[in-house]
Every structure is written in structure tokens, then in C-alpha cells.
């Protein structure tokens, strides 16, 4: 069922909502290989049923908002696999349909940064040597394809710097679909080193944006970022960090704290949409769902 576009913003304002966890982690847990520059978008071509199963696991865990497998998808990336523009557009759109097929209450169409499409880790550095206008031209076609598929919201996520945030804010204009803007952060700054107040200011007063926040970061980064985001923009805040482990020398190291441990504090600070990113699976989201329910978000 396709909802009216105002439904998601209204729901987000009314009560806290539960976001899903790391799609790639759930797919990998099923034994599928994602060692490809398309990452989870590879399965849009090869095994869409696996994506439905992964989404469904998060819905069963209590996720009310499910993000699509389009984070690393682009016309340019599909072209390198010999997939033409029309077929690539259909694949991008199919990511929304697959999330709907899993029974998601709300579907967030994932729009990853330019660096994700390069598949070289540069989404955690930003500063690609491109202008804001060049980045806008890259993002706009994929945003148009996703918006045409009727998601409830566009998730502009894992944004590493202010330049790309400005490009995405420009690119989302006039699409008729609400969006959230989420930075990846470290040390209380964007990955490119800008102050968070400067980064979140990009979202202030933008009518298309219904939330702003952080993802794909350590849980300890979230609390301060939530408070800054809420103060600078006045918007609901989205928070979906990693498990707490760190990626070191090609593997995850360190203890996994998980978002559920901190979710109550984030909600008290202004977060309205809480979930997980890398290494947060259905069990972690079930824990978040319990916290959100206690804080008045049950039944979303």
C-alpha cells in the first residue's frame, strides 16, 4: 500500500519510531557474499528474495521503518556491470518494492554518499575533489528514480561532509518526497572534520527535510550530536549508530555496546527515529524496540 506523502512526517512527529539495522549484516548472516562494488545492491540483480528475507527479519524484530538496498546503487555503478540506464532505473525502483513486500510499515529509500559508489572507503573521508554542483548532478538522477517508486521518505545517509550535504539538499528539491539527512561523524565532527553545528545548519529551514541526525558512527558519538542537531534545526532527530565495534585491518574489533543501551538517553535528548547501522542485527533492533515502546513509541 502506498501512503500519502505526509503520513511519515506526521507519524515521526507524533511518536518515536524504530528503524532497522544493518542490511548487509543480515544478508551476510544468511551466507551470501557481498564482496562486490555494488554491495547489497548486487542482490537487486541476483537475489531480490534474499533482500525481502533480510527486511522481513527486521520487521519481525520490531522495526517500523525499513531502509532499501539502494545505498551503494547508482546509474554509474550499474553501468560498470553492463546494465543500461533504463534497467538501472528499474532496479533502483525495485528496492522500494522489495521493502514493501517484506511488510514494512514505512519505507526509507537509502541514498548513500558519492564515496560509497566508489567502494573505496572514501565515504568516511569526504572531500572527493568535486564541487557541490557536480555532486548534485550525480545524486539527482538516482533520487528521481527512487522518489518515483513511492517511498515514504528518502534517507540521505552516511554523509561525510558539509559540501555533500549541501548537494543533497539541493538535489532533493521538488521531488515531492520528504527526506532525512544523516551525517557520519567521529570525534564530535563530520568525517571531513567540520563542526557539527555547521553541518546541521545545512538542514535548517529546508522544507523537504523532516529529520536530521547521525548514523554509521560509534554509539558514544550520538548523544552530543542529537542535542546539537535538535538545537540547530528544530527538527526531529534520527540516530542509528554502529554496534560500537571498530573496523581495523579488514575486521571488526572491540566490544559491541549496541544502540539499545543508550536509546533512552537519545530519545530524551530529541531523537525520534532510532535504530542501528553496521553490525546491528535483528536482536539489537528488538532491544531498541523495547526501549522505544517504554518511551511512548509502541504501535507506530
Automatic annotation (TrEMBL):
Binds 1 zinc ion per subunit. Keywords: Metal-binding, Methyltransferase, Transferase, Zinc. Its cofactor is Zn(2+). One of its GO terms (molecular function) is S-adenosylmethionine-homocysteine S-methyltransferase activity. It holds the Pfam family S-methyl_trans. Zn(2+) binds at residues 216, 277-278. PROSITE patterns: HCY (PS50970). The keyword NADP does not apply. One of its GO terms (biological process) is methionine biosynthetic process. Residues 5-292 form the Hcy-binding domain. PANTHER family: HOMOCYSTEINE S-METHYLTRANSFERASE-LIKE ISOFORM 1 (PTHR46015:SF1), ZGC:172121 (PTHR46015). This is Homocysteine S-methyltransferase. It comes from Kitasatospora viridis. The lineage of its organism: Bacteria, Bacillati, Actinomycetota, Actinomycetes, Kitasatosporales.
